[in-house]
Design goal:
Strand content: 25-35%
Helix content: 10-25%
Family: Belongs to the carotenoid oxygenase family.
Cofactor: Fe(2+)
Oligomer: single chain
Number of domains: 2
Radius of gyration: 23 Å
GO molecular function: carotenoid dioxygenase activity; metal ion binding
Pfam family, one: RPE65
Structural class: alpha+beta
InterPro entries: Carotenoid_Oase (IPR004294)
Length: 458
């Protein structure tokens, strides 16, 4: 139905001139009280993100790459799959980075067993993830789906609001992550079904629901693999706006892609999360309490605001974690910070259970967070200004959280925290065979530049 609406919307768009559709500018006006040096840093950050976010990548078909410096290890063999956003500029309009079209890459290292050959080459394939959203917008050369964080027209103009109101609020672009499972290669994003791509040609093969087990669910990009049980684990969210609640679902699949377990939990007040972890016994959800402002719902329905404008993180709520048992018959535990400290988590390092039952987590914690302006995206101005957003959120810091399960009563437990390092860090990774287990090492990007943590991480 969304695609039918988008096609009908095109007929209206074709006779309408959109305001502020051309002449996009990334220059940031000098703010009162800002020094020349600070403004120069801010301008440079805007220019960097103009290059990063608005670059138009080209598809590649088995292109040969050679090392320009150093040497490619001759024993490095295999294919590295990478998913990510293409360009935030969709024809004549900027969309939120989280809702840009997907651009999928395969980098193949063939190895070199011939000692007489003094140079090893690698091969690159790259292709857009051809979701129905991509196909329609490419065909008609304009954005047609506003999604949750973007708009297809100026929200402050009468005609722009009408066009936004008629456009679908689902923008399924599969632009974030990749997961091989059950002889299938999946590309994923938040609030989006899984899509399957061909591992050789990278052609998009369509939605993958594992024989209908995930049909209709709004999936999260992050998936987990239980190395002990050899299961793929997925998570999806559904918001019950009027009841201020979040419906959380987990599904587990065996190596053949068969559904072997599913769990559902309704959390009220509502919560939001992006990343999550597993242990032997629990799904670990860093649940940031959220509040829906129903007074703004008419603005959303009439195209005058985005979906992220009608909800916000509850800054009065303490940092908390949901421990949802993988055995559905057991009780869900909600652990909150013992000192009442607020915190918001979007990415997590490894989690594990200790012998006494204590659950240990390594989250990247924001002290505060506001949705909608990620990476400095300014919807109304149609530009990027990353430093103010970076500074306002403070940057995520790596902490150690411990949940004492022995003291849990009536579904509640207390949690303690310890700061690991004061350098902002994000995008953690660790050995894939250590999901749910203790790890010696974890790796992440770190932000060390004075102009803001986020500007450093690219």
């Amino acid at each position: 139905m969304n695609y039918i609406i988008a096609t009908l919307l095109l007929l209206l768009c074709s006779t309408t001139t959109l305001e502020n559709a051309h002449g996009l500018s990334l220059q940031v006006p000098t703010a009162a009280g800002t020094s020349g040096r600070e403004q120069a840093l801010r301008d440079k950050a805007g220019q960097v993100w103009k290059a990063v976010a608005m670059a138009a990548p080209k598809e590649r078909n088995d292109e040969i790459l050679k090392a320009t410096t150093g040497k490619i290890p001759s024993d490095l063999k295999g294919t590295y799959y990478v998913n990510g956003l293409a360009s935030c500029q969709v024809f004549d309009r900027l969309v939120h980075p989280f809702e840009a079209h997907g651009f999928f890459k395969a980098i193949t290292f063939p190895g070199n067993d011939n000692e007489e050959q003094d140079e090893t080459t690698i091969r690159l394939k790259a292709k857009y993830v051809e979701t129905p959203v991509y196909q329609l917008e490419t065909r008609f050369k304009r954005p047609l789906f506003r999604g949750a964080m973007s708009s297809i027209a100026d929200t402050s103009s009468f005609m722009g609001a009408i066009l936004n109101a008629l456009s679908p609020t689902q923008r399924e672009t599969a632009n974030l992550a990749v997961r091989p499972w059950a002889n299938k290669l999946l590309v994923t994003a938040d609030n989006c079904p899984f899509f399957r791509v061909d591992e050789d040609s990278l052609e998009t093969l369509g939605v993958e629901s594992f024989n209908g087990a995930l049909a209709g669910q709004k999936m999260l990009a992050h998936t987990r693999v239980d190395p002990k049980r050899q299961r793929l684990i997925t998570s999806s969210l559904e918001y019950d706006v009027f009841n201020q609640a979040t419906i959380i679902r987990f599904s587990e699949f065996d190596q053949e892609g068969n559904l072997v377990s599913k769990t559902e939990h309704t959390q009220s007040p509502a919560c939001v999360y992006h990343d999550w972890m597993i242990t032997d016994n629990y799904y670990i959800v860093p649940s940031a309490a959220a509040v829906f402002d129903l007074s703004k719902l008419p603005d959303l329905l009439s195209g005058r605001c985005t979906a992220t404008d009608i909800f916000a993180i509850d800054e009065n709520a303490p940092a908390s974690v949901l421990l949802i048992p993988r055995d559905p018959s057991k009780e869900v535990i909600e652990a909150s910070m013992g000192d009442g400290r607020h915190g918001v988590v979007f990415h997590m390092g490894p989690c594990h259970e200790e012998e006494d039952g204590t659950v240990v987590l390594y989250p990247m914690v924001f002290q505060r967070y506001q949705f909608g302006g990620e990476m400095g995206f300014l919807l109304k101005e149609q530009k990027f200004d990353p430093i103010p957003w970076s500074v306002s959120n403070g940057g995520p810091l790596l902490e150690e959280w411990k949940v004492g399960m022995g003291s849990a009563t009536n579904g509640k437990a207390s949690m303690t925290s310890k700061l690991i390092h004061d350098v902002p860090s994000d995008m953690p990774t660790f050995h894939p065979n250590r999901e749910g287990l203790s790890c010696r090492y974890m790796y992440s990007l770190c932000g060390i530049r004075e102009e803001g943590w986020f500007h450093s991480t690219p």
